[in-house]
Amino acid sequence: MINNCYTRSAAYYETDQMGIVHHTNHIRYYEEARVDFMHKIGCDVKELEQNGIYIPNIDAYAKYKKPIKFSDKFYVEVRLAQFNGTKMHYEYTVRLCENDEIASTGYTTHCFVDDDFKPFNLKKKFPVYYNRLAESVT
Amino acid sequence: MINNCYTRSAAYYETDQMGIVHHTNHIRYYEEARVDFMHKIGCDVKELEQNGIYIPNIDAYAKYKKPIKFSDKFYVEVRLAQFNGTKMHYEYTVRLCENDEIASTGYTTHCFVDDDFKPFNLKKKFPVYYNRLAESVT
Amino acid sequence: MINNCYTRSAAYYETDQMGIVHHTNHIRYYEEARVDFMHKIGCDVKELEQNGIYIPNIDAYAKYKKPIKFSDKFYVEVRLAQFNGTKMHYEYTVRLCENDEIASTGYTTHCFVDDDFKPFNLKKKFPVYYNRLAESVT
Amino acid sequence: MINNCYTRSAAYYETDQMGIVHHTNHIRYYEEARVDFMHKIGCDVKELEQNGIYIPNIDAYAKYKKPIKFSDKFYVEVRLAQFNGTKMHYEYTVRLCENDEIASTGYTTHCFVDDDFKPFNLKKKFPVYYNRLAESVT
Question: What was the pLDDT predicted at B4?
């Protein structure tokens, strides 16, 4: 089973003057965790791009529960919740390592586009990647 | 009537290797537009913080329609959709200046907290700000 | 004469927990000012890239004098100090609009590379851009 | 002997449309490495701030040799080169893990200020931190 957990600590430049990690950085952490997850399941984002597969966001959402502060260690749990060849939907939970409390939960939805930003179905053109993603839905 | 429109162009460092503005920057643009709006209605964020009023995000959402590219001019329409003294909810539309096409739509929800991150109701402690926000809901 | 001045105010997300604009953002402001300057002299960066001319940094330096705080208005004076067809060197001064005090001074050096990141001399391949830059050195 | 090496890989959102990590992010990596180093020598930045010691940048410089690309692993070597109680000067080398090639070299200089941004000498008020830094100069 894939380890779907991505761990980091918060950088100084990620804080804002409220003394907490700026809210948009949570969504950047989601991206880091998704990239890590996709690598682990054999769908490395760099490799996909070299094959002409780009994965822009269709949407992104974050719900903030507890602030992350500078140097806090946290981990991101990532789950591929839906995938049908044209779209994939990920869910994320960020937890503080200290006490496992939830810092934020969120989701992102993505499609697959070519060099010209034309959406396409992964199934026909890239069955190997399609299968790896399909098998990773939980 | 308040001008609820905030105009900018996309910086080079805001792009990513897909050749478009990174999706999280749309949500940063929402913040810039909300800060601008709050200033215009007499609820300047800097002034609020000097009075011990902090406005963290409860959530943030963006739905992406068209990419913004480097140096594209765009404007953000911002609307205070809900406010009840403890929370406020903003809706945003980012449009490209060139053709008024929607780049993204989104929303953010905020509460009011003091120096210790304790939430409070703006109505009792800061009736002037309360009234200005209440009158700006549309 | 080219207006070499670029004006902005500091965004909330650009601050850090020291309550000031994070130091690296000054260098991002330099980039914004340089892009603005290059557009004004007829060397628009987007247009250059469409012609296969990329302008990576060789170096970047900033010396910090006064903090920029959230919502402070500031302007960046930019000067093309050296240009010889293969490199160009810019100098920057960021000043607070309120009192013209210097927030930072800095410089960046750039070369010109093609799609494969091979450096080249602008003079032979792009004499029009070469001349516009050469005439803008002060 | 302190391990002065800090390892990471480049995030997607750190790239720009040139397909490389944006140059200002190298300087953010320097900061991450310095924070890591200071923690290891017993001068944890979070702890220092809790004691009213803030460490703004006086300057920052980076010289770029090789681009870092998305998902590249790299490490930052950090060295405290000078320290006299009122200022400290760090030098950095970022190398790609793949081949140990230098991506960038740089430096930053810092002073110590209190809550009111007044500079002070660490020696008198915080001899323990002073000694730890003094002993870490190499």
Answer: 73
pLDDT digits (tens, 9 = 90+) for D26-52: 999 999 999 999 999 999 999 999 999
Shortest Cα–Cα distance, B22 to chain D (Å): 6
- The predicted pLDDT at position A2 comes to 58
Cα(D57)–Cα(B76) distance, rounded to whole angstroms?
34
pLDDT value of residue C104: 98
Kindly indicate the confidence band of residue D3, based on its pLDDT and cuts at 50, 70 and 90: low
SS3 content of chain A, % helix, strand, coil (to 5): 30, 35, 35
CB of A41 less than 8 A from some CB of D: no
Element (H, E) at B124: helix B122-125
The answer to whether residue C15 neighbours chain A at the CB level (below 8 Å) is: yes
Q: Inter-chain contact B61–A58, Cβ cutoff 8 Å? A: no
In a 3-state reduction of DSSP, which class is residue A65? coil
Furthest-apart CA atoms within chain A: distance in Å:
49
Could you say which of D18, D24, D54 has the minimum Cβ distance to residue C18?
Answer: D54
Q: Which residues, in sequence order, are CB contacts of C111 under 8 Å at separation 6+? A: C55, C56, C58, C86, C87, C119
What domains, with CATH codes, occur in chain B? 5-135 (3.10.129.10)
- Measured CA to CA, the distance from residue C102 to residue C115 in angstroms comes to 38
The A73-83 sheet, strands edge to edge: A5-9, A73-83, A87-96, A102-111, A57-64, B57-64, B102-111, B87-96, B73-83, B5-9
The Cα-based distances of A131 to A1, A82, A88, A90, D28 in angstroms read: 16, 13, 13, 17, 38
* C30-62 burial: b if 16+ Cβ within 10 Å, else e: bbbbbbbbbeeeebebeebbeeebbbbbbbbbb
Any A CB within 8 A of C115 CB:
no
Cα A103 to Cα D60: distance, rounded to the nearest angstrom: 32
Summarised one tens digit per residue, pLDDT across range A6-43 is: 999 999 999 999 999 999 999 999 999 999 999 999 99
Are C61 and D56 an interchain contact pair (Cβ–Cβ within 8 Å)? no
- B84 residue type, one letter: N
D115 touches chain B (CB under 8 A): no
pTM of the model: 0.97
Which residues in chain B have Cβ-Cβ distances shorter than 8 Å to D13? 16, 22, 24
Q: What is the ipTM of this complex?
A: 0.96
Closest residue of D to C53, CA-based?
Answer: D18
A59 and B64 in contact by Cβ < 8 A?
Answer: yes
Structure tokens that stand for D100 in this block = 């140990």
Percent pLDDT > 70 in chain A is: 98
Active site residue D16: yes
